[in-house]
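Case study 2.
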Amino acid sequence: MRQKDMYHNSFEESYREPFGAAPKGSPVTLKIDISDRYRVSHVILHYILDRTDDEKTKEMDLCSQEHQQVSYEATIRMPERPQLIWYFFEIILEDQTLFYGREKSYESGEGKVYDHIPPSWQITVYDPSYKTPDWWKNATMYQIFPDRFYTAGKLERDKAPETSLIHAHWENDPVYIRNERGEVIRWDFFGGNLKGITEKLDYIEGLGVSVIYLNPIFEAESNHRYDTGDYHKIDPLLGTKEDLETLIKEAAERGIEIMLDGVFSHTGSNSIYFNREGKYDSLGAYQSKNSPYYSWYTFHHYPDEYDAWWGVGTLPTLNKENEDYQDFLVHDEESVIKTWQQSGMKNWRLDVADELTDDLISQIYRQLKKKDESSVLLGEVWEDASNKTAYGKRRDYFLGGVLDSVMNYPMRRLMLDFMKGEMDAYTVHRRLMTLSEHYPKEYFYAVMNMLSSHDVERIQTMLEDYLPDDFSQEEAEKLIIKQIKSLSLWLYAFPGVPSLYYGDEAGVTGGADPDNRKPYPWGRENKELLNWYKQIGQWRKEHTALRTGHWKSFTLDKDVIGFERWTENGVDHFNEKTSDERMLYLFNRNTRKKIEINLPIQKGKWQHLENKKRIFSSKNNVLTIELEPCEAMLLRLMK
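Prediction:
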């Protein structure tokens, strides 16, 4: 049996129509080709409904016979209830039964012949009535760790927690001060505040940014503030409620939205609600079973043994199914969500979304949309969000009415594995196509794409680790800048919301936490990188094709990744009116070799966006370009 004797490719519309996720109740046509040298008795399509594990079968019809191939086809209707559908093929021959399924369970595209039940392809069945806000699909994000961005005015040391270490110099490196058990006993602060962000709005606007995502800003003991002390109060070191409202107002005047980090899976042990340290004037759950907050937590041996996030005692876990907690968070007149909605806050990022129930996320989603349909709810999810399983339950993130977006860590991993040499361009292409296939287009164009964040090493430091040792320091520095430019251009030209982690544009380095949370180096920026990020931010603002245009991935060499973005017939990928344009991204990851590519493409002249004097002409509908080591380019088809 030769593998090509049977063929189905979920990426090709001739084998799966339509491509990708499917609206509930819609028809999907599937086809498989089989060599005519086999005596086929029946071809059976198997498809399984994920909600019920109910398996259905349908005999496929012979639809054509040519070029020594016999084609079989079947059309199935998607269920009315959004869910995943899994499918594979059974081929019954006169003398044996074979199966055809995915080659890898995590990668779509063409399949493989098996003599047993194979891995299945996925169809995401979603509710098309749910749309992600248009402004968000067009957005460019800037992520800020508030303590480390900028201090406006004089640092008020008396407003810092009493166990704090206040840095005397902004240029210091962050540090953890731990006891012999590894517990942090003093948190270090630099004093960045909300007024500082407001003062730097012109700078942020100059980067082409349209949404600022802030790591937590509510009162807490730590510098990262994921250990919330009071959800209704801005941390005094950061400022006041009025400071936040001023930031929201002045950002809006520049066309910039604000997004807050919602840490609703756990609180701090030093909080109004738990009050283990007795610092609050409240009856906390740790202090008494009569506390109004007692039912919010799960105790095993009261009061010292309780559920905590990853076993960290300072982060007691909340019971997300507790109705009193849900009312406090979402439904009460002075709930957390409603309180900050009154201040103009409409966008949230949910920390560790996997540890919240879909029901609670949906409650937050509905309250946000009730107040303002253009609100955005983003979830921290580290895997493929379409088929994510957490705590034994399939999550409904992208089926409609749960989340608008997730952090696209899968794409970040692909980009880094490509740079490390652990994955070639052909594999990256298939994996990106798989994400595109799994995600409904409303979500594929809404995911948060990033190279760095507060939870991972900064991109510049990672790239330094990947380079071979035989480059001189000067050569290495030049190559890393080229790589950063190439990867950031990839991000800004790709479907989704590109996110720039504060300081990356200034050349900030940093390994694992807390090194990845260094202060912004005002006055000491890498000017080349800073100007580059301003440039690509402007390109993204100017060209609709880079935001909501159609997308097609391709590769012609193991080291070269590329994709097209375009709008045509006066509309974008979502049928919104716009002008026609066509863009092309190319990137050679090889650190030593120039690579020439010959790309079959539309006839015409293609202009290099960075150096407009460089113009490439396609001859006989083939574009020939030589890419320098680590070079990326963005080309525009001239009219």
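The radius of gyration is 27 Å.
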